[in-house]
From TrEMBL:
Keywords: Membrane, Transmembrane, Transmembrane helix. GO terms for cellular component: membrane. The lineage of its organism: Bacteria, Pseudomonadati, Bacteroidota, Bacteroidia, Marinilabiliales. The chain crosses the membrane at residues 12-29, 41-61, 81-98, 110-128, 140-158, 170-191, 211-230, 237-254, 260-277, 284-303, 398-416, 428-445, 457-475. It is a multi-pass membrane protein. The keyword Transcription regulation does not apply. This is O-antigen ligase-related domain-containing protein. It is found in: Membrane. It holds the Pfam family Wzy_C. The keyword Transmembrane applies.
Length: 487
């Protein structure tokens, strides 16, 4: 949304400039408050909103890895949010609503795309279960934050990505700032010894709340850096820079010690191979059903074998990997099972409407059984909620909460594969495949952790979903335009 009337733009510029000077003087002279130091940044953002509103989305992508929770900056607030990204996203939501009300329309192709309809169904159910929630205030806050993530990073981003050159920009902005976090965390890690696994849990603070969310986002962006480094349709300079950044993020990925991220990358590479080899869906389905059947038939033997694994998470990489299947003594694995069990018991009590979006952390404590509790168990969801993007909605919004979220994933995968198969532009073809592989890393990671309530993961999750939809609608054969020149 850009204000085109020159007189209005000039008037707004002078009004905001004068207001800025007066406000700055008042804070510094009268109140002696340091908050005035942030006013130039606020002023620049307001100018962006006037002259080039779409740049705010790029600003959000850049600041997401560097954003800080409010309690880290100003302790004592009864609520929390990530600064500066969530206020920016809220501003985008407000301006987006005003724009739609002013124009009285929005692109119907976007609104009625299968992915958009799946997202709308999920949002509608979240709204309904917020009304019936056991803690309505918590649930409506959850609903509002989900709305501003989707409006800014999906609906508005689709329009931005319809100009093909903006796709790489969105990716690179996050990568550049993420590399700053990698340098910061690696430098802190050096103080404890690079191979100190325990240090990996807190060296990424305050930018990421723990090493698992950090590992998850690194897994999402490594496929794009691999694409930029290997594809010949990008310039030599871009490929060299991409190799450098790939090395930086790969170092962070290894030092994250996130087993879930490592596992998700392996499975995502398998999905890439399936698509590249054009393996038929029927073959995949038969294989999957066969594996499930074998597991059911031999589940007792499988669990007996797993119970024999006593490997603890460790700085030794092979030991750390082997500890993934330790369900006997590894506290991290056992705590996940505890949280999952609580979610399933909560679902059994309220299978239709659930306890309400965002309420798991406040409601799960009574569902913990003494036999399931571990040395790291708490009653306040410290260190994570349900530890699952799938069981969390099941407990909070009932069966349709899970099914509508799975519907989003299913329609995204279907759209990506369909679009990939019909594209003739090599660059766009590879972007769609890479975006899908990147998203698959999080689809898998979502079985073990849940981070979509944060800007850190929402920026790539909804942004890459928007990329796939935008290419399907605007840049694929039969779309509005087809731009073949790389950024």
């Amino acid at each position: 949304m850009v204000i085109r009337n020159q007189a209005i733009r000039i008037s707004l510029f002078y009004i905001i400039s004068i207001a800025f000077v007066l406000l700055n003087l008042w804070f510094v002279v009268k109140k002696d408050m340091l908050v005035a130091n942030a006013l130039p940044v606020v002023f620049c953002i307001l100018l962006l909103a006037i002259f080039s509103f779409d740049k705010i989305v790029f600003l959000i992508a850049f600041f997401a890895p560097l954003s800080l929770p409010l309690h880290e900056i100003v302790p004592g607030f009864s609520f929390d949010m990530y600064l500066p990204t969530e206020p920016l996203l809220f501003g985008v939501l407000v301006l987006f609503i005003l724009k739609v009300l002013h124009e009285r329309s929005f692109d119907r192709r976007i609104l009625f795309h299968p992915v958009s309809l799946a997202i709308a169904a999920n949002l509608l159910w979240i709204l309904l279960t917020s009304i019936t929630s056991t803690m309505p205030l918590v649930s409506f806050k959850f609903f509002l934050s989900r709305i501003w993530f989707i409006v800014g990073l999906y609906f508005f981003a689709i329009k931005i990505f319809s100009e093909g050159k903006n796709i790489e920009r969105y990716v690179w902005l996050y990568i550049v700032s993420l590399s700053i976090v990698v340098f910061y965390s690696t430098f802190r890690h050096l103080g404890y010894g690079l191979w100190d696994k325990q240090a990996a849990h807190f060296v990424v603070s305050p930018f990421y709340n723990d090493h698992t969310s950090y590992g998850a986002v690194l897994a999402i962006y490594l496929p794009f850096l691999a694409l930029f480094a290997l594809r010949k349709n990008y310039s030599k300079e871009v490929r060299i820079i991409s190799i450098v950044f790939f090395g930086i993020l790969l170092l962070g990925f290894i030092l994250s010690y996130s087993r879930a991220a490592w596992l998700s990358m392996v499975i995502a590479l398998g999905v890439w191979g399936i698509i590249k080899l054009k393996i038929r869906f029927r073959t995949i389905l038969i294989t999957f059903v066969s594996l499930i059947t074998l597991f059911i038939l031999f589940q007792n033997q499988v669990f007996m074998k797993l119970e024999q694994n006593t490997e603890q998470s460790s700085a030794n990489f092979m030991t750390h990997i082997n500890s993934m299947t330790n369900i006997t003594s590894d506290a991290s694995n056992l705590e996940r099972i505890n949280r999952w069990s609580c979610a399933i018991r909560m679902f059994a009590d309220k299978p239709v409407l659930g306890y309400g979006p965002g309420t798991y952390m406040f409601q799960y404590a009574p569902y913990q059984l003494n036999r399931d509790r571990t040395i790291i168990s708490t009653n306040s969801a410290d260190g994570g909620n349900a530890h699952s993007e799938y069981l969390g909605p099941l407990a909070e919004s009932g069966v349709l909460g899970l099914l509508t979220f799975l519907l989003i994933i299913g329609t995204v995968i279907y759209t990506a594969v369909k679009t990939y198969s019909r594209l003739t532009d090599i660059r766009l073809k590879q972007i769609v495949l890479t975006a899908l592989v990147a998203l698959v890393t999080y689809y898998i990671h979502g079985f073990l952790n849940n981070f979509l309530d944060t800007d850190k993961l929402s920026v790539p999750f909804w942004g890459f979903t928007a990329m796939i939809v935008s290419i399907d609608l605007f840049l694929s054969p039969g779309g509005k335009q087809a731009q073949k020149n790389p950024a």
